[in-house]
Specification:
About 85% of the residues lie in helices and about 0% in strands. The longest helix has about 35 residues, at about 85-120. It is mainly alpha-helical. Helix 1 packs antiparallel against helix 2 (about 45-75) and helix 2 (about 45-75) packs antiparallel against helix 3 (about 85-120). The protein is built from three helices and no strands. The chain starts with a helix and ends with a helix.
Length: about 120
C-alpha cells in the first residue's frame, strides 16, 4: 500500500476506533465497579480470603489488559504505514489477548480448586 492509501484508511478508521475506545472505556468502568474490592485482611475464613485475593487480582489484571489493548490500538492507528510500528502494535494486542485468556483460565482453575477444597 502506498502512503496516500494508508492515510485515507487511517482517516476512515479513526472514528470507528474512537467509538470502540469509548465503548471499552465505559465497559471497563462497569467491570471494575462489579469487582468486589474488599479488604482481604478482614476475612473470617480461608475460603473468603482466597476469594477476596482472587477478586483483587482479577480486577487489576482486567484493567491492565484493557490498557494494553487500547495502547496497542492507538499504536496501530498512528503507525502511518511504518511496518516496524505496525508489527510492534500487533504483538502488543496479541500478547494482551493471550494474557486475558491466561487470566481467565487461571481464574477458572483457582475457582474450581476453591470449590473442591472448601465446597460449593
Amino acid at each position: 500500500m502506498n502512503s496516500a492509501k494508508i492515510k485515507n484508511l487511517t482517516k476512515k478508521l479513526i472514528p470507528v476506533f474512537s467509538v470502540a475506545f469509548l465503548f471499552v472505556a465505559y465497559n471497563a468502568g462497569a467491570t471494575l465497579n462489579s469487582v468486589n474490592f474488599d479488604n482481604p485482611t478482614t476475612t473470617n475464613t480461608t475460603e473468603e480470603l482466597v476469594s477476596s485475593i482472587v477478586s483483587w487480582l482479577l480486577g487489576i489484571t482486567s484493567a491492565v489488559v484493557i490498557i494494553f489493548l487500547v495502547y496497542g490500538g492507538i499504536m496501530y492507528i498512528t503507525a502511518s504505514g511504518d511496518e516496524n510500528q505496525i508489527e510492534k502494535s500487533k504483538k502488543i494486542i496479541n500478547y494482551a489477548i493471550i494474557g486475558l485468556f491466561l487470566v481467565l483460565i487461571s481464574y477458572s482453575v483457582v475457582t474450581t480448586l476453591n470449590n473442591i477444597i472448601f465446597g460449593p
